[in-house]
Amino acid sequence: MFFKSIFQGNLQFGNEKSYEKVIKMYDHRVENYYKNDILFNAEDIFKEDDLSLKIPRTVVNITEKNWKNSVDLLQYVAQFAISGNVGAWMTEEGKILKYLWIEPKGDKAVVQKFLKGRSLVDQVGKEKEAEQALSKAIELYDRHAQAYERRGYVNFLMKKYHDAERDFGKSVNIDSSNSNAYYGRAKIKILREEWEDAIKDLDLAIKTSLALQDIHWSARRLKGECLQKLKKFEEAEFEFRFFTKRNFKDKSPNAPYKKWALFNHGKVLIELGKYAEALDSLQKAMKLPSVQEMVADADVLVYR
Predict the structure, then answer these.
(1) What is the arithmetic mean of pLDDT over 38-48?
(2) What is the DSSP letter of 165?
């Protein structure tokens, strides 16, 4: 049986010794362990010019065994890498059957500093420690796109917006597929009410992410808000409608914004003169609980 599978990402090895070693091990395992029943040939994904493994977004129908073999092999080579990540999804009729986020987790100093910094990012009061650990990871490997993005986020939390924007920019200059960095930079531009420029970054975040990822929908929601601010109501309506029709799991960071999106979808529909549809959206918003005071029932009632 074949399943629709998606692979996307990159791994950086940092030096020629690690790079040459991993290619030899990759070829050896393909031939002796997996009997060539894998998706990627070494010559298609290993890039000597920057000592990396790169998998552009690849959507294929493969067997479960082929998916497992390919994932196992990517997990194996990731232990030789110092930065990067690869996402692997197996789906059926739009539902995720299997998912793995593959990244370096070895004992190399740069890897450990990054993992420590990332783990501290969301701990209240640990922002400075997180920044120091991530800075150390960057000092050890100055092309660590993920460390720049996470440090940018920490700087954003500490309201050091200039530093945050610089870090997000460095991240995407190294890895143009880093959707989180585009999203972070867009949030800074939104704070400055630079709606058009924010939309450009949000479009890049949407383009470089998958609809299976939360970041994709977070970017669409913010894009809708920017379009609403610009009074581009038809375009905003599309983004809000797209967002509100999506079913988010309770743990998704997008779930708390469902009421907010329905409310703003209703407001945009009123601007477009689509009153029946607006009423439907506002009534749906009323049925959802208010979360984090993003939108109160009283506000919904005013428009309804």
Answers:
(1) 95
(2) H
